[in-house]
């Protein structure tokens, strides 16, 4: 299932969130317009963080594909605060979609995405980074948190 890269999973989860929004009863978390006032900035911040991380990888001329060997160990900028700012951005965006759509079940989908990212994607990437960069990656991992 190496075709199921994180952005593809993100799109799938958003599609399921929309389906739940349309298919579940009208029980909502927040009164309008608070769902928009909270949700949309979270979506924007999350996608901005993910795109900024992607841009940093492109500037470093390194591979961004989850299931390919990394070329360059990026540890500066936002990567000095979080080893996975792109996943953090996706999680924030999904939290924003859940709030904007105002369907409590969608928060569970966001949590599911975080678990899949943490247990599948990130573990795979960390192993690949350790194999590729050895002690440099281990030092980076000791000083920088996985999420925040």
Structural class assignment: mainly alpha
Largest sheet: none
Mass-distribution shape? elongated
Q: Over all CA atoms, what is the radius of gyration?
A: 17 Å
- Kindly estimate the percentage of residues that lie in beta strands according to DSSP: under 5%
Mean pLDDT: 95
How many strands appear in the DSSP assignment?
0
Task: Give, in order, the helices and strands.
Answer: HHHHH
Number of contiguous helices: 5
Oligomer: single chain
Low-confidence stretches: none
Subcellular location: Endomembrane system
Pfam families: PEMT
Keywords: Membrane, Transmembrane, Transmembrane helix
InterPro entries: Phopholipid_MeTrfase
Notes on the structure:
The protein is an all-alpha fold and 148 residues long. The protein has one domain (34-143). It has helices at 6-23, 34-59, 85-101, 105-133, 135-143. It starts with 5 loop residues before the first helix and ends in a 5-residue tail after the last helix. The mean pLDDT is 95. Its main location: membrane.
Explain the layout of strands and helices.
Layout (H helix, E strand, L loop, with lengths): L5 H18 L10 H26 L25 H17 L3 H29 L1 H9 L5
